[in-house]
Amino acid sequence: MLTGPAEYVVIKQLTDAQIVVGWQRPDYFAQVVTLADGKIKTVEDLRGKIVTFGSVGSTSQHLGPAQALADLGLTLGTDYDGQIVSRNTAVEALIRGDIAAIGMNFTHMQKIRETYPDVAFTVIARGRDLPNDILVAKRNLDPEIVDQIRKVFVTRGADLMAAVLKGDDNQKFKGGHFLTEIDDSDYDYVRSMYRTIGVDTFGQFVGD
């Protein structure tokens, strides 16, 4: 099955699934956005303010932005009030001055700028590039079968990517590559994100 970074951490904990191949998403990173002409100029200005996150448990809309702020010294729930609010509602709240900033990914930022061409937004925090989406298999699947699947992604990667990009929902992979050198340790950064939002075990999906 194909899964995102946040989901993989839970799936690995519950099933000990093995990684087959990574599906790279270019420009896949989290950021914290505010109004360019507003009072928030730096991350430090968010102390005591409300910052909203998108879909609960989302790598790039919730976990990633919270981690980006943590990397810059702000603790969720202590230094700022983090709330889960749908992105469109959050943008309207930001424009009204009801909240200080919004956590989102790069693609969402592009769409918001298109939707609100008369509003100037700015990014005050950007996280590191997030780990790849991954194709996983059950832990006891025959190693030869796993190896054969990996070889197909290596030798027919361009053809497979072209087929993937025929769907509108998969345009996030445009310009990406299939990667076979992926380790479970690459997702320790995601595990640190869970801890940042107060989740110390990975036995269930956030919000369940």
TrEMBL record:
Gene3D superfamilies in the record: Periplasmic binding protein-like II
Superkingdom: Bacteria
The protein's name: Phosphate-binding protein of phosphonate ABC transporter
Subcellular location(s) per record: Periplasm
Keywords, alphabetical: Signal
Keyword Signal: yes
GO cellular component terms attached to this protein's record: periplasmic space
The organism of origin for this protein: Polymorphum gilvum (strain LMG 25793 / CGMCC 1.9160 / SL003B-26A1)
The keyword Cytoplasm belongs to this UniProt entry's keyword annotation: no
Family, as annotated: Belongs to the bacterial solute-binding protein SsuA/TauA family.
